[in-house]
Amino acid sequence: MEIANRTLTVDVVAALKYWPEIIWGGQENPTDPVDLTVLPPFFNEVLKDLPWWNRDWKVSHVEPARPLEIESDHHGHPSRFTEVSVPGTVGSGGGESLPFVAKIGFAGDQLIRFQAKIGDVVLGPAVAPAGRLEPHPFARVLTGLMDLRGIPVKVMARETARSMSTIHMLRSGRLNPDPLLAQEIAKALGMSEADVRVIAGLENAGAAPGRPG
Fold first, then answer.
1. Where does the HTH cro/C1-type domain start and stop, copy by copy (predicted)?
2. Interacting residues of 5 by C-beta distance below 8 A, sequence separation 6+
3. Could you read off the pLDDT of 50-63 as tens digits, one per residue?
C-alpha cells in the first residue's frame, strides 16, 4: 500500500488534531468540536488501495483521535511529526461489524505513516518487498545496540561463539532469536538476559536445551 506523498485536506487534519480529552495549560474550556465525518471517507480511500481489500467493508464510525506523538520543538526535543490513534468500527453490507483503530502519522498536511487494526488483524505498509518475508523486529534493535556499542559482527560472533552468518541473519531479521541466543547476546551487549528476552519477544519462552548447529 502506497501512503507516501498523500496530501491531507484541511478538514482531515483538523479532525485528526481534535483531542477533546486534553485540556492544555491555560485552557479554560474544551476545544470546539470539529467535523469527524470526514475521517471515514479518508480511511476508506486509503484502505481501498489494498488490492485484496473487500470494498464491501467500510469504516462506518469513528471517535475523536488520541495523540501518541505531537509535532513540536518543546524543550529542545523536537518531534518532526504528529501521530494519533483513531478508534471506530468497520461494517459490511451484510450487517457484520468489527472494531477498528487506525494509527496515522503526518507532518503538516502530508501523510507519512498509516496502520489499521481491524478486529485482531493489523494492516500496514510492509518493510520487505512484495513476496519476501517480513524481518523479525529484533533485527533493528540488535543492529542499533551493536552499532551504539561499536560491536562489529565479527566480535559479536566471537563473543557468542556463533558464526558471522548467524549474526548477519539476526541483524537482517532472517533468523528468529531463541532463548539461548538471547542469553549469549545479552552477555556480549552487557545487558541483562531478562531485558534482551523481552526485547526479542521471548519473555514467555522457556530456556532452550541446546543450540542449533
1. 165-196
2. 110
3. 878 888 999 999 99
